[in-house]
Amino acid sequence: MLRMTSLTVHEVLEREHFSHATVIAGKGGLSRKIKWVHVMEVTSVKQLLHGQELILSTGFVWKDNVKVFRSIVQQLIQSKAAGLCIEIGTYMDYIPSEIIELADQHHFPIIVFSKEVRFVDITQDIHSLLIAHHYQMISDLEKFAQELNNLLLAPGCLYKILSYLAKKTDMQVIYKPKEAEPIFAPEVSKDKQETFLHFLTFQPDGKGLVVQHVQAMDYHFANLILVPDQHTSVSDYDMLLLDRSATAIAQFLLRELYIEEKKRALETEWLYDWLEGKHSEERILSYLVDFDESLIPRGLQVCTCKFTKQLDAYSSSQVTYFMLLMRSVFEQEGFFLLSLTTRHKLIIITLNRRDELTVMDRLRDAFERFMKSDILQKETVPDVEQIGVGKHVRLLKEMHKSYESSIETLAMNEKLFTQSSKIIYHADFHIYRMIYQLAKSKELNEFMHDYLEPVLHYDQKNNSNLLNTLRVYMCCNGSKKETAERLFVVRQTLYHRLEKLEELLGSDFMNSPKRQAIEFAIHAYEYLKRNV
Questions:
Q1: Which 3 state secondary structure label does DSSP give 517?
Q2: What are the residue boundaries of the Purine catabolism PurC-like domain, all occurrences included (predicted)?
Q3: Which residues, in sequence order, are bridge partners of residue 300?
């Protein structure tokens, strides 16, 4: 099979302008690739080259100095030049033996012209050849990409893409997904499969192989691997074929995920009944098995998403891609996601697949990665205003409790303005969860006045802020030194204020449980003050 490879020194030697040329050193390097041809007559060349240049020279700058000649050849070798062509007769009559030895040692081709040649003709010829070679490669890549697009429309397209890549590269292709069995194209025996997999196990970085990640939406789906044999080198063209094949497979996987996500969106009626607590634990588990046979949830949490616009202002594809991105991130942290939508918000059910002890840490890590995603910053997905994360429940039938707490989380944050983050956790509100519930009746206001009214009345009458001293003193766990520093007052002033607090609240105001009641009343006062 004709393979698309880079231009080599050996191929250049077959050109007409090299008919009187002889390779006098470095014959082991005739397979070196040539990316450009450069005429050079200077002594310092290292900083002028990028690598894989064929150098043309008359030898004028080193004609009488072997040391300079050796230095130039060493620089060319270090710069990974393709080879050196020298015109013999004009300024040089021969190549010193130590230069030949150096070139042979490094398989660096040195080519001499026995007759006068025009470098301009050589550069024009080889550059034209390189451009034609490059154009042919682009043309073939375009045909390859078109064929991949055609294969994407055919049934069983994944294996067809792998087979096509194997045919074009004339190499063994292995597709190794993260959570499924590998696919080999062409198919090989079980023994060969085990040999390849054994090699991959002990060479995870793909040494000896060419590995390309199949990746989309910040998620690594699989590895696409080329296995060259002992007599086959991997060319730049092969690498481009591999890259385009990985992209086509990623498109196929995204399409499959998109279809799956749309299918899940159609099953919202059952999920709404679950959200309202209408299903038993056994029925829920049976339902989840249809999604994934290995899914055995260890509790769940409901997340309620609010966007900057009403949800129906976004297209269904935008919401679908939002969920695809979220799913790709959260699955890596051990969560299985389900979703349903209302007019105003998106409800996400995160089913925990791993240890319950780490569920909150993993959930926070997943949200942090999700919010930093570049895709989330684009207009292709809905813009998140806030996401309320409900409490973790162990029984699946109690999902409604987690949902209610996620709604409560958003409401509490709106009342308190305590968190500027877009991700709000019910677990972070602590005592305010009780305050929020009590605030729905008159009991919270009455409780607050029972404990703080003397201090509030004193502050109002004297235009003071004794309540703040009380709050800071309790936050400092009764440390007078720390309290004075935080209030920026001298100790004597603080002592005077504490005496007044004892007079108003009683000398036992720092004793439990009275102290706990007063601390609760202070939080209640701050909550009520914000929501007058």
A1: helix
A2: 11-130
A3: 351, 393
Name every residue whose Cβ is closer than 8 Å to that of residue 97 and which is 6 or more positions away in sequence. none
Residue 32 near residue 8 (C-beta atoms within 8 A): yes
- Short-list 203, 200, 170, 202, CA closest to 186: 170
* Helices of type H across 217-295: 236-265, 268-275, 281-291
CATH assignment, 267-429 = 3.30.70
Nearest CA-CA partner of 55 in 9, 19, 95: 9
Determine contact, residues 44/75, Cβ cutoff 8 Å.
yes
Tokens 């070139």 belong to residue: 103
Cα–Cα distance between 58 and 122 in angstroms, integer? Answer: 14
CA gap 130, 358 in Å, rounded? 58
Are 406 and 304 within 8 A, CB to CB?
Answer: yes
Tell me the Cα Rg of the chain.
37
What are the structural domain ranges in the chain?
9-127, 154-260, 267-429, 437-530
Scored b (16 or more CB within 10 A) or e, 41-59 reads: eeeebeeebeebbbbbbbb
Q: Judging by beta carbons within 10 Å of its beta carbon (0-12, 13-18, 19+), is residue 430 exposed, middle or buried?
A: exposed
CATH architecture of 9-127: 3-Layer(aba) Sandwich (3.40)
288 CB burial (10 A radius; 0-12, 13-18, 19+): middle
Helix (H, G, I), strand (E, B) or coil at 177: strand
Give the architecture (CATH level 2) of 154-260: 2-Layer Sandwich (3.30)
Classify burial at 230, counting beta carbons within 10 Å of its beta carbon; exposed 0-12, middle 13-18, buried 19 or more: exposed
Give the pLDDT confidence of 233-284 residue by residue, as tens digits. 777 788 899 999 999 999 998 888 777 767 666 677 788 889 888 889 999 9
DSSP-H helix ranges across 333-477: 359-371, 399-416, 432-438, 443-462, 466-475
Is the pLDDT at 133 greater than 90? The verdict is: no
Query: 253, 245 in Cβ contact below 8 A?
Result: no
